[in-house]
Design a protein that fits this description.
This protein is an alpha+beta fold and 92 residues long. Helices cover 37% and strands 15% of the residues. The chain has a three-stranded antiparallel β-sheet.
Length: 92
């Protein structure tokens, strides 16, 4: 699995959670890798992929209750949809 596939898996996981993890809705950072195969968790390629998502500001990070929590950046919503090859979300 390459870096791009890992990034897509992580982003899709956060979007599929109930409720989706945009903005103030967040989850523990440890939950990001739970959707990946066990042999990949903790590897350098996974960490580099997640670090790049922070760098391009697709993910935001904040400290809550002593743990790092993450969410999708709502200001980058259109870019995230393009990155995943999804049609833009309809504005209501």
């Amino acid at each position: 699995m390459d870096k791009r596939a890992v990034q897509e898996k992580v982003l899709r996981k956060l979007m599929a959670m109930n409720p989706p993890k945009w903005g103030n809705s967040h989850t523990e950072e440890d939950n990001l890798v739970k959707s990946l195969p066990k042999h990949l968790r903790g590897t350098k390629i996974v960490q580099n992929a997640i670090d790049e998502l922070y760098k391009i500001e697709f993910l935001t990070k904040l400290k809550k209750s002593g743990e790092w929590h993450v969410s999708l950046n709502p200001r980058k919503k259109e870019e995230i949809y393009r990155f995943l090859g999804l049609p833009p979300e309809e504005k209501l």
